[in-house]
Amino acid sequence: MFDDKDSWSDFCSSQTILIKKLLISLGVGERLREERERLGKNQTDFGVSAGVSRGTQKAYELESSSPDVRYLSGLQELGVDVHYVLTGSRVDTNLNNLSEVESAVLGSMRQMSEADRNVLLRTASAFASAAALDELKSPN
Question: Could you tell me which of 57, 69, 52, 64 has the C-alpha nearest to residue 33?
Answer without folding.
Answer: 57
